[in-house]
Write a structure and sequence with these properties.
3 helices; alpha+beta; globular
Length: 131
């Protein structure tokens, strides 16, 4: 396993890009809207991982609610897995509280699923399986 990306919630992608792209010199690999999750994302590679900037497209999205409650900042840590279904089954068997019982399509066409922060010592964990 390895860290796939760190998700950072921001009110506007341009706010986050002002630091990560403009000040630190990272390159935007891709931007896209993930309609199902009601976010726009920008991926910026850094070493073997990426920073994922998240902008809500609606205030009632998960990221919109996060921003309203906590403000901008780290939203989640994503771990790359080989078999997301097997990983979810193992986590469930070991008592983890899953937000997603089955994977869904996320940014870049990856399969993703989230594990509730109550099972991960307060960190929203995303499992990612690349196509």
């Amino acid at each position: 396993m390895k860290i796939d990306h760190i998700g950072i919630a921001t009110q506007r992608l341009e706010d986050g890009l002002a630091i990560w792209r403009d000040a630190l010199g990272l390159t935007v690999q891709e931007t896209e809207e993930v309609a199902e999750q009601r976010v726009r994302v920008a991926m910026l590679p850094i070493g073997d991982t990426r920073v994922e900037l998240l902008e809500p497209t609606t205030p009632d999205s998960a990221v919109g609610k996060f921003l309203a409650k906590r403000g901008p900042g780290i939203h989640h840590i994503a771990v790359k897995v080989q078999d997301i279904n097997a990983s979810l089954a193992e986590l469930k068997e070991k008592g983890a509280r899953l937000i997603d019982e089955t994977p869904r399509i996320g940014a870049g066409g990856c399969l993703v699923a989230f594990v509730h922060p109550t099972s991960t010592h307060g960190v929203l964990l995303e499992l990612v399986q690349h196509p």
